[in-house]
Amino acid sequence: MRPETLPCCHLCGERCAVEEIAGAGFGRAADLRCEACSAEAPGFARAFAFGPYSGNLRALIRLHKFEGTQELAVPLGARLATVLRSVAAETEAPVLHVVAVPLFGSRRRYNQSEQMADAALRELRRSGEAGRFLAAHRVLRRVRATESQSHLTPAQRKKNVRGAFAVRGDVIGWTAVVVDDVYTTGATAAECTRTLREAGAANVYVVTLARTQPERVERWGALDLG
Ligand SMILES: [Zn+2]
């Protein structure tokens, strides 16, 4: 079987190895776990992505993020809205607080994740589906700058973002939806989740537009993601 046709971990979306699938037997797709999630469940309930970080999606994300093409927030937000619908279908929580991963200071003129999240919420509002979603970007802030993640290994990324975020305000009992553009190793998503959970959030979902898969890159350093 070609790697890209293998099913993905139900929790984090990582493409599973043949051995992991064989180990899971012929159970439900919802029971499939990658090696990392089997060893230790991630802090978030589940991570959703619109698609793989490749082709047009990758090109659009990079134009939006690095080239200042802010109008792309609208079509990217429409794609993100479909992912938010999946979260709404997954949980019965009455309110879903949408929190974009914050940037540090003013390194960029705009936060691409926040723009996309807001565009997605506008899209859902237009179709009358935004009822349970509430934008709450301000509760999470970045308290220190982090090194660019592009040349770091998964373990180094984890260390790099440790303690980088803080909660401002009351999130006790919240079901939060952390929004980012790309899920690479999950280090940023996991750290945002940890910060929110420690401050009292009951549940965290992670929503990204794209997700990388390890077999697509020779090494993590091949990606220049923030
Ligand atoms: Zn997993």
From TrEMBL:
Q: Which domain of life is it from?
A: Bacteria
Query: Entry's InterPro entries?
Result: ComF/GntX_DNA_util-trans, PRTase-like, PRTase_dom
**Into which family does the record put it?**
Belongs to the ComF/GntX family.
Protein name per Swiss-Prot or TrEMBL: ComF family protein
Q: Please tell me the species this chain comes from.
A: Terriglobus aquaticus
